[in-house]
Amino acid sequence: MAKTVVIVGTLDTKGADLQVLRDLIQARGLQTLVVDFGVLGDPPFPPDISAAQVAQAGGEDLATLRAARDKTRAMRAMERGLSVVVQELCAAGRLHGIVGVGGGSGTSIATAAMRQLPIGVPKLMVSSVVASGDVGQFVGTRDITLMPSVVDIVGVNSISRRIYANAAGAIAGMVEQAIPADQPDRPIIVASMFGNTTPCVTRARALLEAAGYEVLVFHATGSGGRTMEALIEAGFVTACFDVTTTELADEICGGVMSAGPDRLTAAGRAGIPTLIAPGCVDMVNFWARDTLPPRYHNRHLYEWNPNTTLMRTNVEENRRIGVWIARAANAARGPVAVLLPLRGVSQLDSPGGAFWDPQADAACFEAIRAHLRPDIPLIEIDANINDPEFAERAVEVLLDMITSMRSGPTCQ
Predict the structure, then answer these.
(1) What pLDDT shows up at residue 410?
(2) How far apart are alpha carbons 49 and 116 in whole angstroms?
(3) Residue 246 burial (10 A CB sphere; 0-12, 13-18, 19+)
(4) In 10 A of CB 44, how many CB atoms?
(5) Which of 30, 166, 308, 368 has the fewest CB atoms within 10 Å, measured from its CB?
(6) Residues 6 or more apart whose Cβ sits within 8 Å of residue 68
(7) Euclidean distance between CA atoms 375 and 402, whole angstroms
(8) What CA–CA distance (Å, rounded) separates 240 from 229?
């Protein structure tokens, strides 16, 4: 049986566009299922799932929403409803891929629903707003592909017809593409990495893979940390090698790569073995130098590239980071250990390096020592975080925790 692509949008304002997209996808031999979440008026053709059904799934009545003329209320209701609808379709095996078409409001609602679907389900959003700025709010931690519509979505024309043809080909290709046969699934270990901890994680990854694990590395740029935490939360992960906690510095100092206040919490809640190190907490990330907040103009800065400026964290900021790490470790329900690289927490923070500051590092280390539970292993290594001996010891500790957890007492 042909696979089904779910098409979502507001038929009252984007009906002609969605109809063209539907016909193009059907011409590829796939089934389609059109879901309407428009509130303003009636659709130009009957959808497979009506706006009234979406509103009901969101706990509202469509006629009531129209009469209320409250856009915020309507958007929230249709967002809730569409999320419920697409999850139910996926669970029933009636959704093998999803594509949306919309402007600002439509993109917000459609991608909110897409974010509720599992990683690996093809997701494509054709939007008039995704080329205008930060798209993190739309993608979140999911694998959503964004396609700028180039022209506004107000009817089919010579440009949009080409865009929709490309969109139909893209979603059809993703849905039809078979996943290549790979080696048998291995237990997953997630690891956080930054440019300034690459040698450490590269060495650790090789050792962990040699021990039979699959290592998924996440770039600690805010979205990377959030995605790693979401994957742990979803239950896919066996253990966590969290040696690049730089996103804490961005959260504390207002940098551009914060992963939010929940960073370092998922592994602890999941109870999986977790290795934590204060990697790259010596730096806060900003864009080009002229974007720095005025309060930081006199700080120790380093231009990593023309578009990225790093700010060295100071003693007080490092102390706060240390407290955060200790409290996160203390809250863990499973085995956890903290490793301290006494000769620097990054490539730049090494003897003679641009960010070498033993006093600031010591503030972080002392805060961890002072606040960490006595029963949690705190291992100090006289090496830089990127020295081979640090990575090797960190891997040894993590593998020991995994082994101990597996061989622990069981209920009879």
Answers:
(1) 37
(2) 18
(3) buried
(4) 12
(5) 166
(6) 74
(7) 17
(8) 10
Distance CA 276, CA 274 (A): 6
Give the residue from 317, 214, 229 showing the smallest Cα distance to 267: 229
Residues 185, 177 contacting (CB under 8 angstroms):
no
> Is the CB of residue 34 less than 8 Å from the CB of residue 5?
no
By CB atoms closer than 10 A (0-12, 13-18, 19+), residue 382 is: exposed
Measured between alpha carbons, how far is 377 from 290 in angstroms, rounded to an integer?
Answer: 43
Name residue, tokens 């551009």: 256
299 Cβ contact list (under 8 Å, min separation 6): 311, 312, 314
* Inter-residue contact 266 to 237 (CB < 8 Å): no
Distance CA 54, CA 164 (A): 24
pLDDT number for residue 409: 41
Q: What is the dihedral of CA 258, 261, 266, 268, to 10 degrees?
A: 120
Token pair recorded at residue 121: 């389900």
Do 24 and 168 touch, CB atoms closer than 8 A?
A: yes
CA distance 16 to 376: 61
> pLDDT tens for residues 300-346?
999 998 899 999 999 999 999 999 999 999 999 999 999 999 999 99
The full 3-state SS of 309-335, as one line of letters, equals: EEEECCHHHHHHHHHHHHHHHHCCCCC
Residues 347-382: pLDDT tens digits? 999 999 999 999 999 999 999 999 999 999 999 999
Residue 113 structure tokens: 């629903």
Q: How far is CA 378 from the centre of its chain?
A: 29
What distance in Å separates the CA atoms of residue 364 and residue 322, rounded to the nearest whole number?
4
Task: For CA atoms 181, 187, 192, 195, give the dihedral sign.
Answer: negative
CB atoms within 10 A of CB 290: 8
What value does the CA radius of gyration of the chain take, rounded to a whole number of Å?
A: 25
Whether this prediction's pTM lies above 0.70 is answered by: yes
